[in-house]
Each structure stands twice: as structure tokens, then as C-alpha cells.
Amino acid sequence: MAHPPLKAVTLTHVRYQKGDQLGHFLAWVSLVPVFISLGGFASHLLFRRELQGLFFAVGLLISQFINELIKTSVQQARPATCALLEMCDSHGWPSSHSQYMFFFATYVTLLTSKGLRFREILSRWVATSVMWSLAVLTLFSRVYLGYHTEIQVYAGAALGLVLGALWFWVVNFVIFDYFPAIEESKFGRMFYLKDTSHIENVFKFEYDNARAAREKVASKSD
């Protein structure tokens, strides 16, 4: 009895030529979107419950949905090298990896520039430089490893940049006015959703409040 062909789950399944050190490095770079989604946003939403982070994640999901919609409509094939990568059964235009990373880098750049103070410029510049470097490296990795053509990654990068800027405007100039209402809603209270953008130094605020709460408990036990 003939069995149907098997297909691997490709979430972290990235191929490169054996012995190619650059390819090995770029294979790890191409997994950055996975690390951001699972290690970054999942932990942030679980432990921080920040509305800005929540809507940032929603924007990335919308961006990826748009990417899949376009891919399904255009149905542009991946390069011939996809036969060796077991990727020929999926479409290539635009590149979802490039779109994800350029959306992410654009949104973070605009967010960190919001209300920027002079003493923070250097650290924020370093952070955004790292993000844009990862975005460009991810774009390059998808072509180098044979998953996409150049036009496919350029299209993904352009779409990610536009959608990232557009979603930043929607969140911070439209939805932002409703953050207090979301905080006070039954849903917001149930899941401890909050917005700390009005606090100058969140780490110091949480540190001071944690110490004050501990001292209060200690004084009651005396």
C-alpha cells in the first residue's frame, strides 16, 4: 500500500550547505523572527501585559495574514533551489521573513523615537542599529540560502516597512486614546492589562513600589 509523501514542520527547519560557515550563521539569522515571536512577544505578554506590546504583536499577526493573502493571490514560485529545501509547495512573493523583520524594525524605531530624551539617544541608536542589521541580514539570508529571489525579499521588506509605519500610526494616534478604557474594562482588569507609557522610568517605578510593599509587609509583622 502506497503511503502519501511526508512533509516536515518547517518552523525551525532551515537548510544550508554542509561546511558553509556563512550559510550556517545565516541559517540561525533566518530564525530571528521565530525567536522574537516565541521568546520575545510570548514572554512579554505573559509577564508584562503591556498594551503597547499587545498591539505590536497584533500588528505583526495582521502583517503576516496580509503576506499569506498576497502569496495565495499572486502565487509566484520560489527559485529553483527550493527543490533541495523542500519548499517548492509554498509561494515566495513577498518574503514573509523579510516582511516580519522590516515591520518589527520600523515599529521599534518609531516607538523608541517617541518622546526621546537626549541622554537616551546613544542607547536607543545602538538598539535600533542592531534591529536594522538583523533585518538586513535576514533579507540577505533568504536569498543566500536559496529560499527566495531578490525581488521577493525586496517586496517583503518594502511591505513590512509600510505596514510597520502604518500600524504604528494606528496604535499610537488612534487606539492609544482608548488605552485607559481598555485598562479599566472587565477584560483589562481580568488579564491585568496596563499601559506604562506615562511613567518616565518604569524599572525604577516598579523597584520603588516593590520595596515599599515589602517594607509595608515587614512593618505589619513586627
TrEMBL record:
InterPro entries: Dolichyldiphosphatase_PAP2, PAP2/HPO, PAP2/HPO_sf. It is found in: Membrane. Pfam families: PAP2 (PF01569). One of its GO terms (cellular component) is endoplasmic reticulum membrane. Keywords: Hydrolase, Membrane, Transmembrane, Transmembrane helix. It comes from the Eukaryota. The chain crosses the membrane at residues 25-47, 125-145, 151-179. It is a multi-pass membrane protein. Its main location: membrane. GO terms for biological process: lipid biosynthetic process; protein N-linked glycosylation. One of its GO terms (molecular function) is dolichyldiphosphatase activity. This is Phosphatidic acid phosphatase type 2/haloperoxidase domain-containing protein. It comes from Erythroxylum novogranatense.
